[in-house]
């Protein structure tokens, strides 16, 4: 198992703990970001980083994003004292913590995550890059040496959202939903690419693995439902469209109950065009053509504050605001329709005059090409 993972750039060093391991195996807190054990925390508190690759006892650890950006890291060695050099998926864990700069994250995603020879395999997110000598093909039981893990899919959501990779979340979710739909189980891990007759996306034995189940729910909310964003009190209303823009999505209804309020997203096809309505307690918040994400406040009455690109191609949109929206009644009375083109991984604010203002752009290229 990989223990004590630490994150610098795109190359990861990690411990291989065997019975002949000659040094203390240190569990780094970021290895278990959801539920670090007391012993892990206690061990971390005893570590002091004195330099780029020197670890000693007796100090207090502070392995934060500043340390990562300054090049402080833990090198891990095998029983013979040799550094274990392997390209693993754990940069996503660092991104989950927000420990990378935006430039570091974009470099990792473009050069490694999107690379079909490494991490964007037919079923993406192998635990070790598929072209690394240490990659083990197939789906050996409970292995972090090759298979794509349910925990990795769960962690990838926040990791990619932290840096604005909205479209990559949509694409990974589509892969996950298809695999679960075909096999009908919630396994711990999947086969990243075909091997000895086992197809990509095939699960290992077992079912009801919590991270796989939770991942399905959250990816569905991100692509075709409603997702609260507590950091800024926003609601994300999504209706992704992965195919050609002329192909309408399947009609559906998604309901999210938050406190005493019921939020409902209705996807439909009207006059040959995909649209989705956002409703709060039965009242219309907005109506928008499909393929994008609409961002609103989570207060009642809710108002639209922006739009984001979550589909892998530009989407021309028409966003209709009801009477009572601030952009309708205050700044520009009578403006009830907003039009524009929403590009992948781009975020926009309403300009108040019937258009969109770009507020953030994160590079996007269709994943899956070898590099």
Descriptive account of the structure:
By secondary structure, this protein is α+β, with helices and mostly antiparallel strands. It has eight helices and 19 strands. It has helices spanning 38-45, 65-70, 91-96, 102-113, 150-161, 166-183, 210-224, 326-331; strands spanning 2-8, 11-16, 47-49, 55-57, 85-86, 148-149, 189-190, 226-229, 234-238, 252-258, 261-270, 273-280, 283-289, 292-297, 304-309, 315-320, 337-342, 346-350, 356-361. A six-stranded antiparallel β-sheet has the order 8-9-14-15-18-19. Strands 10-11-12-13-16-17 form a six-stranded antiparallel β-sheet, with no helix packed on it. Helix 5 packs antiparallel against helix 6 (166-183), helix 5 (150-161) packs parallel to helix 7 and helix 6 (166-183) packs across helix 7 (210-224). It starts with a strand and ends in a 10-residue tail after the last strand. The model is unreliable at 1-66 (pLDDT under 50).
How would you spell out the order of helices and strands?
A: EEHEEHEHHEHHEHEEEEEEEEEHEEE
This entry's quaternary arrangement is single chain
Q: Kindly state the mean pLDDT as a whole number?
A: 79
Count of alpha and pi helical runs: 8
| Radius of gyration over all CA atoms, rounded | 23 Å
Overall strand count: 19
Q: Within the largest sheet, what's the order of strands? A: 8-9-14-15-18-19
**Low-confidence spans: pLDDT under 50, at least 5 residues?**
1-66
How far do the termini sit from each other? 28 Å
Tell me the overall shape. globular
Which percent range fits the helix content? 10-25%
Measured by DSSP, the beta-strand proportion falls in: 25-35%
Largest sheet, strands/sense/barrel: 6 strands, antiparallel
């Amino acid at each position: 198992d990989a223990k004590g993972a630490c994150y610098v750039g795109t190359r990861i060093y990690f411990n291989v703990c065997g019975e002949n391991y000659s040094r203390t195996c240190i569990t780094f807190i970021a290895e278990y970001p959801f539920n670090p054990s007391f012993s892990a925390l206690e061990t971390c508190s005893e570590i002091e980083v004195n330099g780029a690759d020197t670890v000693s006892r007796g100090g207090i650890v502070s392995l934060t994003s500043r340390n990562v950006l300054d090049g402080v890291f833990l090198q891990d060695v095998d029983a013979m004292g040799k550094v274990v050099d392997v390209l693993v998926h754990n940069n996503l864990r660092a991104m989950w913590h927000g420990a990378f700069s935006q430039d570091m994250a974009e470099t990792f995603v473009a050069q490694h995550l999107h690379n079909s020879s490494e991490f964007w395999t037919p079923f993406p997110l192998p635990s070790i890059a598929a072209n690394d000598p240490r990659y083990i093909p197939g789906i050996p039981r409970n292995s972090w040496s090759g298979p794509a893990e349910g925990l990795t899919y769960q962690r990838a959501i926040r990791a990619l959202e932290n840096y604005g990779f909205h479209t990559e979340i949509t694409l990974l979710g589509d892969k996950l939903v298809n695999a679960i739909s075909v096999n009908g189980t919630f396994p711990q891990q999947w086969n990243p690419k075909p091997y000895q007759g086992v197809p990509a996306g095939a699960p290992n034995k077992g079912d009801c693995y919590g991270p796989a189940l939770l991942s399905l729910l959250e990816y569905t909310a991100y692509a075709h439902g409603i997702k609260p964003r507590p950091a800024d009190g926003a609601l994300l209303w999504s209706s992704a469209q992965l195919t050609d823009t002329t192909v309408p999505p399947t009609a559906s209804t998604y309901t999210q109950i938050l406190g005493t309020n019921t939020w409902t997203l209705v996807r439909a096809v009207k006059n040959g065009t995909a649209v989705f309505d956002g409703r709060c307690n039965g009242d219309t918040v907005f109506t928008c053509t499909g393929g994008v994400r609409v961002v609103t406040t989570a207060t009642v009455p809710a108002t639209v504050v922006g739009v984001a690109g979550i589909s892998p191609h530009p989407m021309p949109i028409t966003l209709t605001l009801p009477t009572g929206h601030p952009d309708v009644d205050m700044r520009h009375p009578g403006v009830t329709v907003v039009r524009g083109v929403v590009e992948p991984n781009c975020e926009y604010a309403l300009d108040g005059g019937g258009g969109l203002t770009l507020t953030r752009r994160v590079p996007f290229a269709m994943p899956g090409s070898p590099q």
